[in-house]
Amino acid sequence: MIDFFNFNTIITPYIISFVYIFGAVAVPFIVYYFFKKYKFEINNAKFRLYIFIIFIFLELFWRIFCEFFMVYFKIYLALS
Question: Which residue ranges run through the membrane (predicted)?
Answer without folding.
Answer: 14-35, 47-73
